[in-house]
Amino acid sequence: MQTNYDNHPLDLSYLTEMVGHNPEFMIEVFDTFIEQTPFYLAELEDALSKKDWDRVGHCAHKIKPTFSYVGRNDVKDFVQSIENNARNQISVEQIPADVERLKSLLIEIYAQLDVARRNLQSNL
Predict the structure, then answer these.
(1) pLDDT of residue 7
(2) How far apart are CA 57 and CA 84, in angstroms?
(3) How would you class 21 by CB atoms within 10 Å of its CB: exposed for 0-12, middle for 13-18, buried for 19 or more?
(4) pLDDT more than 70, % of the chain
(5) In angstroms, rounded to a whole number, what is the distance separating the alpha carbons of residues 116 and 16?
(6) Distances (CA, A) of 117 to 19, 23, 27, 41, 58
């Protein structure tokens, strides 16, 4: 299923604005994102399995800003919708599919970050 999130490029302007053009630090941000998001996702899935909607909303809220750092505000907005639906208990039957979609998007983002890391390393 194609959505407006498929093949969306990274926009690293926010990260560059925050850290300047510092390739080493940018790579550290990428690595931290790749290391930490599985923990956030596991917590989100645990809350979802228990239908603990307040906690689902809290977990979505925690992971949401990380997408700004890696230049995927489109995914940040998608996670915002998961958070809103969970907190307001709206369309909760859709949340499991949205979380599965988020997992697919993360795989795409990890691949994008790998390419960005290689590009930054080649400029060192």
Answers:
(1) 63
(2) 7
(3) exposed
(4) 94
(5) 13
(6) 15, 8, 6, 23, 30
